[in-house]
C-alpha cells in the first residue's frame, strides 16, 4: 500500500511539473507570436525599420501584464473567448485568402527540403513534436466541456469536434501557405503575403490580440496556483489582491518575455514544448498510469500494446528533445541572443 502511495505521489509531482513546463513553453510561443505580429504590422507603415523584434516582445509582454491584472480569473474570460474565436477567424481567413492569391500568381516554387541528411532527419523529428504542440490546444475545449454533466461524454464530444472540424482551418493555413511559397514559407505566414495594407494590418492586430487572450488562458493555471498558494482571497480589485496580481503575474510575464526576447525562435520552442512535455503527458504517462491501474484486468496483448506506446514515445521524446535543442543552438549561433528574426 505504501509503495502505491509513494508511486502515486511521484506520478502526481511528475505530471504537475510537466504540465507547468508545457504551459510555460506555450506562453513563450504566444509572446513570440504576439511580438512577430506587432512587428509585421509596424513594417507595413514604416519604410525605415528601426525597432527590432525584442522591443515588440517587450510591448507584447507589457500588454499581457495589463490583461492579466485586469482579468483576475477564468470566469472573467467568458466574453473574451468569443472575441478570441472572431480574432482567430480573421487571421486564418485573411492569411489563407491572400496566400492562395499569391500562390495562383506566383512562378514555380521550390518545395525541396534543404540541408544535409542529418539536418533533414532532425527537422523531421522536430516537426513531429511541433505537431504535438499544435494539437495540444485541444485541452482548452476539453476542460471547458467538463463544466457540465455528464463530464466525460461532453469532453469526448469536444475532442471529436476539435480533431475533425477544428483541424480544418489549421490544415488549411498550413497547406495553402506551403503551396503558395514553398520552402520560403515563413513561420509567421502573414510575413509572406501580399495584398491591401489595411487588410494585412487588421490580420496582424487580430493575431496579436488573440495571442494576448490565448496566453492568459494557458497561464491561468499558474496564476490560480499562486493565488491558492498564497491564500489570496477577496474582491478582484481589493488592494491586497490587486497588489499580488501585479507582483506575481507581472513577475511571471517579465520572466517569460525575457526568455522570448532572448531566443525568439517560435518553431524551435514549439518543438521543445512537444518533446519535453506533450509527448510524455499524452502518450507515456497516460499509458503507464492506465497500465498500473488496470493491469489485473488487461490481456497480455493489451499490456504489450501499452508498453509499446511507452517505449516508442519515450524514444521519440528523447529524440525530439535533442532535435529541438539542436535547432535552438543552430539558430542561436546564426541569429545571436535578442535577435531580430
TrEMBL record:
Gene Ontology biological process: amino acid transport
Keywords assigned: Amino-acid transport, Membrane, Transmembrane, Transmembrane helix, Transport
Coiled-coil parts of chain: none
Signal peptide annotation: none
Annotated ranges, domain Amino acid transporter transmembrane: 7-325
Membrane is among the record's keywords: yes
Organism domain of life: Eukaryota
Cellular-component GO terms for this entry: membrane
Intracellular or extracellular location(s): Membrane
Transmembrane segments: 12-33, 53-72, 79-100, 120-138, 159-181, 201-225, 246-266, 272-293, 305-329
InterPro entries according to UniProt: AA_transpt_TM
Protein name: Amino acid transporter transmembrane domain-containing protein
Lineage: Eukaryota, Viridiplantae, Streptophyta, Embryophyta, Tracheophyta
Amino acid at each position: 500500500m505504501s509503495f502505491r502511495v509513494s508511486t502515486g505521489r511521484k506520478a502526481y509531482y511528475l505530471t504537475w511539473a510537466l504540465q507547468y513546463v508545457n504551459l510555460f513553453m506555450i506562453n513563450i510561443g504566444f509572446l513570440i507570436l504576439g511580438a512577430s505580429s506587432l512587428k509585421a504590422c509596424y513594417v507595413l507603415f514604416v519604410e525605415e525599420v528601426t525597432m527590432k523584434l525584442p522591443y515588440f516582445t517587450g510591448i507584447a509582454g507589457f500588454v499581457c501584464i495589463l490583461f492579466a491584472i485586469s482579468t483576475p480569473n477564468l470566469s472573467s474570460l467568458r466574453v473574451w473567448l468569443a472575441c478570441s474565436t472572431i480574432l482567430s477567424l480573421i487571421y486564418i481567413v485573411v492569411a489563407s485568402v491572400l496566400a492562395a492569391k499569391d500562390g495562383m500568381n506566383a512562378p514555380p516554387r521550390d518545395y525541396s527540403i534543404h540541408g544535409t541528411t542529418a539536418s533533414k532527419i532532425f527537422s523531421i523529428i522536430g516537426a513531429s513534436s511541433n505537431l504535438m504542440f499544435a494539437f495540444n490546444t485541444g485541452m482548452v475545449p476539453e476542460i471547458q466541456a467538463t463544466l457540465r454533466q455528464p463530464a466525460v461524454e461532453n469532453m469526448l464530444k469536444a475532442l471529436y469536434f476539435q480533431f475533425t472540424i477544428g483541424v480544418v482551418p489549421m490544415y488549411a493555413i498550413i497547406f495553402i501557405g506551403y503551396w503558395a511559397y514553398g520552402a520560403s514559407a515563413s513561420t509567421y505566414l502573414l510575413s509572406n503575403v501580399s495584398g491591401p495594407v489595411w487588410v494585412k494590418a487588421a490580420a496582424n492586430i487580430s493575431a496579436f490580440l488573440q495571442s494576448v487572450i490565448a496566453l492568459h488562458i494557458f497561464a491561468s493555471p499558474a496564476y490560480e496556483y499562486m493565488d491558492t498558494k498564497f491564500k489570496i482571497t477577496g474582491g478582484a480589485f481589493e488592494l491586497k489582491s490587486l497588489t499580488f496580481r501585479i507582483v506575481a503575474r507581472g513577475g511571471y510575464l517579465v520572466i517569460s518575455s525575457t526568455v522570448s526576447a532572448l531566443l525568439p525562435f517560435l518553431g524551435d520552442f514549439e518543438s521543445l514544448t512537444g518533446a519535453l512535455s506533450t509527448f510524455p503527458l499524452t502518450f507515456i504517462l497516460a499509458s503507464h498510469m492506465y497500465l498500473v491501474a488496470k493491469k489485473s484486468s488487461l490481456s497480455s496483448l493489451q499490456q504489450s500494446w501499452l508498453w509499446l506506446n511507452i517505449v516508442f514515445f519515450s524514444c521519440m521524446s528523447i529524440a525530439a528533445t535533442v532535435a529541438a535543442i539542436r535547432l535552438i543552438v543552430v539558430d542561436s549561433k546564426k541569429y545571436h541572443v535578442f535577435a531580430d528574426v
